[in-house]
Amino acid sequence: MEIKNQIDREKLPRHIAVIMDGNGRWAKSQGHSRIFGHRHGVTAVRETVETCAELGIQYLTLYAFSTENWARPKMEVDALMELLVRTIKSEVKTLMKNDIRLQVIGKTDMLPERSRNKLAEAILQTQDNKRMTLVLALSYSSKWEITEAIRQIADEAKAGKINTESITEETLSGYLSTKGMPDPELMIRTSGEQRISNFLLWQLAYAELYFTETLWPDFRKEHLYAAIEDYQQRERRFGKISEQIKNKAS
Ligand code: FPP
């Protein structure tokens, strides 16, 4: 059976998060500069977004640039920012056509003004789209996000707006940049690295992790189907035992 048809449409993750890794190695293996790999990574982004929307995934979060990535050579950072602006500019039409809303999480005040403006325009233009939400993690780091949330909660407690005894896990979730989104059930990382790299540490608490050797520029529909199929074979116990999960299902 074709791998696409093996996917159970009733058991799809609502939210898929992806660490797009391996652009540099892909380019180097072909004797090109790293940015060549990032440019080809855009094709994989496009295909992943389209496939998730077609399948009916509600949220797709892509780790496009970490706060740690600012430390890369200036030439690579500048080229990535330029690529981002160009991609957003050229893809807004497709987002509109496919009814996809764009959102961004991260310390975006660090982005160049041009990138910030383009992003803000695209977010505004797509804000009423309903089919899927595409979240770009840009200048993002999970430790930064959690620290910010704690700072805000502490400020509100100091101002007497929050009673510290009433703070729950939901309170903290409500102060993260992913507020209102379901936590990802599936996290995919390409290129064979098996790390979370400061990505959605709180939100991935119970996510199924899927690692593939495929380098990001080579990632296509079939690789996504394989990841979802693998996810659907797993038993998600959330700390319970197998029998409790099976009894609930029957
Ligand atoms: C990781 O590969 C990839 C990035 C840091 C950038 C990802 C960007 C894109 C796919 C293109 C633009 C994206 C959007 C959403 C417009 P790496 O450079 O760390 O590769 P390496 O580990 O092989 O060096």
List keywords for this structure.
alpha/beta, six-stranded parallel beta sheet, Undecaprenyl pyrophosphate synthetase, 44% helix, 250 residues, binds farnesyl diphosphate
Describe the structure.
This protein has 250 residues and is α/β, with parallel strands linked by helices. The protein has one domain: Decaprenyl diphosphate synthase-like (Undecaprenyl pyrophosphate synthetase), CATH 3.40.1180.10. It has helices spanning 23-29, 34-55, 74-97, 113-125, 142-158, 169-173, 221-233, 242-249; strands at residues 15-19, 59-66, 100-105, 132-140, 186-189, 208-211. Strands 3-4-2-1-5-6 form a 6-stranded parallel sheet, with helices on both faces. Helix 1 (23-29) crosses helix 2. It is globular. The chain starts with 14 loop residues before the first strand and ends with a helix. Bound molecules: farnesyl diphosphate (FPP). Farnesyl diphosphate binds at residues 20-25, 34, 38, 41-42, 45, 62, 64-65, 69, 83-84, 87, 136, 191, 216.
Overall shape: it is: globular
Helix content estimate: 40-55%
Beta-strand fraction estimate = 5-15%
Which ions and ligands are bound to the chains?
farnesyl diphosphate
Q: Could you tell me the number of beta strands? A: 6
Distance between the terminal alpha carbons, to the nearest Å?
27 Å
- Top-tier CATH class: Alpha Beta
Q: Helical segment tally?
A: 8
Largest beta sheet, briefly? 6 strands, parallel
Helix/strand order, N-terminal first: EHHEHEHEHHEEHH
Please give the radius of gyration in angstroms: 19 Å
- Low-confidence runs: none
| Shape-level CATH architecture | 3-Layer(aba) Sandwich
Please give the order of strands in the largest beta sheet: 3-4-2-1-5-6
CATH topology: Undecaprenyl pyrophosphate synthetase
